[in-house]
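Quick one, C-alpha cells below. Sequence please?
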C-alpha cells in the first residue's frame, strides 16, 4: 500500500538512498530541506514549527535525518552548536506532526551514545555514556522525542546507527579514507593499533532499517549495526581487495595494547523490526564499488 513519507535532510548521504528506496517500493516521498525546491515533492523548511506544518502537509510518516553533525572544527565537549538543530528542534517536529496528522516518526540516532563503559556488546538497556557533545545531543533528542510522544501520537522510535558507509559519504571515517587510497592505488599505512574494532553499517542496510521501522509499531530505541565489529586492519585489507589494490598496505603499528570495540547487539532489531543486516564488510564494499561505477554525473543513485 502506497504511503506519503516525509524525509528531513533528504539531500544528505542517507537521505538520498532512503528516498530512492522508498520510491522504488511505491511510496511518495516529500523531500524536506533548507535548499530551494527543485522538484514537485521538494519542500523547503527552516525547521521552525510553522514551516514544518506547511512542509508536512499530506505526510503520513516522517523519517527525521536532519541535524548537525560533528566536524573537526567543533569543540568535542561543547553542546551549544548542537542544542537547537538536534534537540530543541524535536519539539517543533512533534508539534507539526500532530497538527498535520502524521502517525509515525522515526529518528536517526547514533552508536556514539555508548562507550566501553556501557558494556559489550552495546544493548539498548545499557547505561548510555555519550563520547562527545554531538552524541549527548542525540541522546537528549531520543529522550525528548520519547517524552513528547509518550502520552499520544505520533508513535515514535529512534534508530541508533553504527558507523554508516557507502558511495557518496563525504565524511572522513577510516573506512572512507581507505577506500579513497585503494582507488588511487596508494599504499595504506596503518599506525597505532590495527586491532581497533568498529561496527560498520552499509548504507543500504541503514535504509532497510528505516523502512522496517516505518512499517513497525516499535517504540523507544533500537540498535542498527552491521552485525560485528571489524578491525581497522581488516577494513583496510578488504577495501584494498575490493578496489583493486590488494596487498598494498604497510603496518607501522606501535602498540599491541587491548583495543576497545564498538559493537551493538541486534536482538531488539530482529524482534521489534524483523530486521537484520544483509551486507557484511566485503559485500557492502562490493556494492559500494558498483554504485560508484553506475552513478550518473549529477550524483543520482
Amino acid at each position: 500500500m502506497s504511503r506519503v513519507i516525509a524525509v528531513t535532510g533528504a539531500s544528505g548521504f542517507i537521505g538520498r538512498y532512503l528516498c530512492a528506496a522508498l520510491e522504488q517500493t511505491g511510496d511518495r516521498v516529500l523531500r524536506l530541506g533548507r535548499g530551494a525546491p527543485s522538484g514537485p515533492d521538494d519542500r523547503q523548511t527552516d525547521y521552525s514549527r510553522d514551516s514544518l506544518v506547511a512542509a508536512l502537509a499530506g505526510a503520513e510518516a516522517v523519517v527525521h535525518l536532519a541535524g548537525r553533525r560533528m566536524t573537526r572544527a567543533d569543540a568535542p565537549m561543547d553542546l551549544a552548536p548542537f542544542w537547537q538543530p538536534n534537540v530543541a528542534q524535536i519539539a517543533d517536529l512533534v508539534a507539526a506532526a500532530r497538527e498535520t496528522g502524521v502517525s509515525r516518526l522515526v529518528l536517526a540516532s547514533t552508536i556514539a551514545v555508548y562507550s566501553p563503559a556501557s558494556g559489550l556488546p552495546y544493548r539498548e538497556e545499557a547505561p548510555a555514556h555519550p563520547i562527545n557533545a554531538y552524541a549527548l545531543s542525540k541522546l537528549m533528542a531520543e529522550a525528548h522525542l520519547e517524552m513528547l510522544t509518550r502520552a499520544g501520537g505520533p508513535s515514535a522510535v529512534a534508530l541508533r546507527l553504527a558507523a554508516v558507509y557507502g558511495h557518496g559519504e563525504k565524511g572522513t571515517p577510516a573506512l572512507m579514507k581507505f577506500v579513497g587510497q585503494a582507488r588511487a592505488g596508494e599504499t595504506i599505512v596503518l599506525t597505532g593499533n590495527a586491532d581497533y574494532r568498529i561496527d560498520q553499517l552499509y548504507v543500504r542496510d541503514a535504509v532497510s532499517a528505516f523502512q522496517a521501522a516505518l512499517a513497525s509499531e516499535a517504540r523507544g530505541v533500537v540498535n542498527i549495526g552491521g552485525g560485528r565489529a571489524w578491525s581497522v586492519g581488516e577494513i583496510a585489507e578488504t577495501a584494498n581487495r575490493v578496489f583493486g589494490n590488494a596487498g598494498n598496505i604497510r603496518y607501522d603499528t606501535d602498540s599491541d595494547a587491548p583495543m576497545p570495540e564498538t559493537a551493538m547487539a541486534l536482538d531488539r532489531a530482529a524482534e521489534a523490526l524483523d530486521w537484520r543486516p544483509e551486507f557484511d564488510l566485503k559485500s557492502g564494499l562490493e556494492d559500494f564499488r558498483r554504485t560508484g561505477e553506475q552513478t550518473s554525473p549529477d550524483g543520482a543513485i
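The mean pLDDT is 94. Residues 80-100 form the longest helix (21 residues).
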